[in-house]
What we know:
It is a single chain. It contains 16 helices and eleven strands. With 379 residues, the chain is α/β, with parallel strands linked by helices. Helix 3 crosses helix 4.
Amino acid sequence: MTPQILETYNYKFKTYNITTNDSYILTVYRITESPKATKKSKGVKQAVYLNHGLGGASDNWNFQPGSRNLPFKLADAGYDVWISNCRGTTYSMGHKNYDANKDIAYWSFSFHEMGIYDLPAVIDKMLSETGTSKIFYIGYSMGTTQYFIALSELAGLNDKIAAGFLLAPVAYMGHLNSPARLLVPLLSTDPLYQIANLALMGRIQTVDQYRKQFKLSPGDICDLAATKCGVCDNLLFLLFGYDANQMNNTELPNILAKAPNNIGVKWFAHYMQNIATCRFQKYDYGAVENMKRYNSAQSPEYDLQKITTPTYFFYGENDNLAPPNDVQITAKKMKSGVLKGNYKVLNKNFNHLDFFMAKDADKLVYNRILTTMKRYKAS
């Protein structure tokens, strides 16, 4: 749990419950002070928004030990660090009207709503609490999808972000080569989604729920013996890309005991539609409902030309979920001059999970982000 991890490493923090314009209640953790700070910083600290990926939550950023942990490195460097929990995660299941455990209507959202409601709510709270005029944004996987949506749909949000750093950018997905593609025929139309949604009551639940139901979790199966034999890491490599040298096998059972977090069925369905169409589009409800919502029989694409915030891509050559081909298609869709950096991680086996699990994630990715941030004055 994120609070326990922060307390263990003696990082002082505050907890915020932020209500979005569509009544979802998000829990966000703010690191206010680093134990490694030799003196209190003078003036206003620059704020950084960390946003996780699908199946994750705030604790994903804390899988790395203290010396390699990105939130801690940012706090140690003097930044005001805000760690998000997207709607639907175990940390952010509140709602003004719905009970997430009883009302299936709670789960009728995808990363589109996260982008147009969650991001502006958190960013506005950050600006209000810190007194700054701009923040930095660091997103991973689905956290990058939300960034693309938010900044293309809400023009004013571009002026509130000094720079965005996107790890494993996910927008165009036609070249995805993970077994996740097998879900496309099962979820890529709204009728199929509705069936799956009813069957699962809106979500694929956390490992804790499966532990309670089946007395077993991935962390129990992937004990040290299984890990040494390569049973579990090979499954992860199949899903996300092979990179044995960067896998921390000692920590893998602990990581799998905490992941995945809740995954909404509609999140999967929306991604499957994008894979099937090779487009980065809004959710497709079918021709009739699309006409009502979009005034078009076809679901419209997000217009990445509308993004004006300085943006940086970091991608892995061996990433199955955000493969280089798709990253470059996304890059070409961006407005000229907006993409300030399009960096391939200097490790040919770097995969999707490596951005928060790799032994050298700090050397290969995090340090470059910290260096680049110094170019901007976000406060």
